[in-house]
User: What shape does this take?
Amino acid sequence: MSEILNELFKRYPCLDACREDIVKAYALFGGCYDNGGKILCCGNGGSAADCDHFVGELMKGFLKKRPLSDAEKAAFDDDFIADSLQKGLPAISLCAHSALMTAFENDAVPTLVFAQQVYAYAKEHDVLLCLSTSGNSENVVYAAKAAKAAKIRIISITGAKESKLSELSDICIRLPETETFKIQELTLPVYHCLAAMLEEKYFQM
Assistant: This one.
């Protein structure tokens, strides 16, 4: 973990101010996975794309191949499938369900579209990851409130300013920028670092 973190801060020295919260986020994600939980992610626009991206790094090999063990392969009667599948860390991007989202937005309350999914999906030990450059995106804030009601933990990545998400979250990584595109530019290396550290923890091969 330390080598991955050191590489992050070497490449992005400004992120050293977020070191403690990044380490705390890693520990909370680890506790989630240690106890059979999953990560739920939500955000808008570029943050929605980042949710999809982060989930992609968790659900398949990122820096490692993550092959199935011999015992896991034995459950298949097809060597092609057994040799091709990879181990994953359960994660869901709440931004990716277009039919559900548009149906709920049309039939119910659009700003609660993420809250609806959080409340339906949330189980003990899950973690909600909220991405919002302002920290005040209404539908993301409502998702965090639904997570509170469901009694799951919340990690947010926002810009530098205090916000509704910084108040609601168990951990808020407040990136040291205030302009949207600059916050987005720092969001990616942070979640790549978290994905790499989680992969190192759970997949030694």
